[in-house]
Amino acid sequence: MAVDILLGLQWGDEGKGKIVDVLAPTYDIVARFQGGPNAGHTLEFEGTKHVLHQIPSGIFHSHIQNIIGNGVVLDPIVFQVEMKKLQDRGVDAAQNLFISKKAALILPSHKVLDRVSEEAMGSGKIGSTLKGIGPTYQDKIGRVGLRVGDILAADFKERYNKLVERHRKTIEYYGQKLEIEEQEQHFFAAVDYLRTLKLADTEYLINDALNSGKRILAEGAQGSLLDVDFGTYPFVTSSTTMVAGACTGLGVAPKYIGEVYGIFKAYCTRVGSGPFPTELLNEEGEAIRQAGREFGSTTGRPRRCGWVDLPTLKYSIMLNGVTQLNMMKADVLTDFDTIKVCTHYKLPNGELTDRLPHSLEADELEPVYEELPGWRVDLNKIDSVDELPDAFRNYLTYIESHLHVPITIVSVGPDRKSTLKREAVKA
Ligand code: GDP
Ligand code: IMO
Ligand code: MG
Fold it and tell me: What is the mean pLDDT of residues 141-147?
């Protein structure tokens, strides 16, 4: 059997949590492979909204095993709060959740490092969620980090102290003091809790499952344009958000990769700093923000909004080998008479291209748009693809004809039920 992967093709927040929850019943395992509490994945069903940060979005299905893979950076404090929230809502996540012993641990001092490093960058800051993601991945790659499995070692406290001393020196270099006594108490309480859970060599779990014919869905976090190699560097996150990240972040050989679901909004958003060619810094952007409730699930920050950008989507599709597309939130565009689609960029020398130049900064390119008629129908009220208005069908087929990948899922509202499955149309 194969591992199917669902991942964001834009700058995150495409609606990954919702679609993983929708697809989950057809899988045996749902696994997160990278990122950490910088992610905020929203699920809505039966009138309740849930936001998950580190726990996979298959958790509401008790028969599905959920795995936090080795590629994830795990904050025990945030994790304990998440588990408690689930418990309060009647979900016993402890019974169907497995955590890789190789996942990296986010310490309280990593979060301080994140903050002081951002403060030092001033106006050039990345706009990090300040959850300690960058500093934790730096320690992992620098081979000094701590991992979940280390909490089982007798000398865990000594190893912890050693790492915190390194961090203290760096923080002093920035002219600040490390004061985390209260956070450390929460951290060690959360570590005690973590020890009671199913810590495992999850690469075996996953490969055994594959060998016994089980179906696995890997849930991406962030999006391809935030990938540390191919995203809008340096305004990116610190992990591989693409298909390759699922191989290294779960321990899956490339030959086992099956379907790749590429998920994107019918428009585009970004939170934090960095270039965004189709950004709308006007009342249209504000209208999308309000209609789409575009405020961060993790930080509450307003998301920057703009039109859909085909060159970036083509790039993400190419790098991930996307086999099916999921279009999200078209219902948000109901009030627009005209929908714009960026098809190309105009470079400073006048050349038109649909390839990404080295920099996506505004002085390096100008987006070129095609205008399509809006549908002016509340898509959220629609229950089947047959009822979709012609103007919206036209929008779907127009995008498919440029991207050459079928849009098999169309989401028209935040609820689980507002999901339309579409026959694969050959583009
Ligand atoms: P993720 O990080 O990719 O899981 O996405 P987020 O949860 O951060 O952001 C997506 C937001 O859009 C959430 O508030 C969802 O409830 C909401 N959402 C998802 N799909 C749709 C949709 O089709 N229409 C509307 N209006 N909202 C949606
Ligand atoms: P989900 O999984 C949107 C952005 C931050 C910042 C940059 C680096 O919900 O789609 P980091 O905290 O990783 O150092 O921040 O990446 N970012 C996200 N933007 N959705 C996310 O996750 C994000 N995770 C990080 O805003 O610009
Ligand atoms: Mg999100």
Answer: 98
Nearest Cα residue to atom 20 of ligand 2: 12
pLDDT at 273 over 60: yes
Q: Look up the domain containing 129 and give its range.
A: 104-195
Is the CB–ligand 2 distance for residue 271 below 6 Å? yes
Nearest protein CA to atom 13 of ligand 1, as residue: 42
Q: What is the DSSP string of 260-298?
A: EEEEEESSEEE-SSS--TTB--SHHHHHHHHHTT-B-TT
Q: State the total domains in the chain.
A: 3
Contacts of 234 (CB under 8 A, 6+ apart): 126
Residue 122: exposure state from Cβ atoms within 10 A (0-12, 13-18, ≥19): exposed
8 A C-beta contact, residue 86 and residue 80: no
With H, G, I as helix, E, B as strand and everything else as coil, classify residue 53: coil
Q: How many residues does the chain have?
A: 427
User: Among 102, 110, 111, 140, which one carries the catalytic annotation?
Assistant: 140
Q: Which ligand is nearest to the CA of 271?
A: 2
Q: What is the pLDDT of residue 426?
A: 42
The domain that contains 186 carries what CATH number?
1.10.300.10
- The span from the CA of 253 to the CA of 20, in Å, is 22
Whether the CB of 114 sits within 6 Å of ligand 1: no
Residue type, 280: L
**What pTM did the predictor assign?**
0.97
List the CATH number of the domain containing 404. 3.90.170.10
Work out the pLDDT band at 293, boundaries 50, 70, 90: very high
Q: First vs last Cα of the chain: how many Å apart?
A: 27
Cβ-contact 31, 216 below 8 angstroms: yes
As a dihedral over the C-alpha atoms of residue 68, residue 69, residue 73, residue 75, rounded to 10 degrees, the angle is 20
Question: How far is the centre of ligand 1, averaged over its atoms, from the C-alpha of 226 (Å)?
Answer: 18
The tokens for 135 are 């500093």
Verify that 287 and 353 share a domain, yes or no: yes
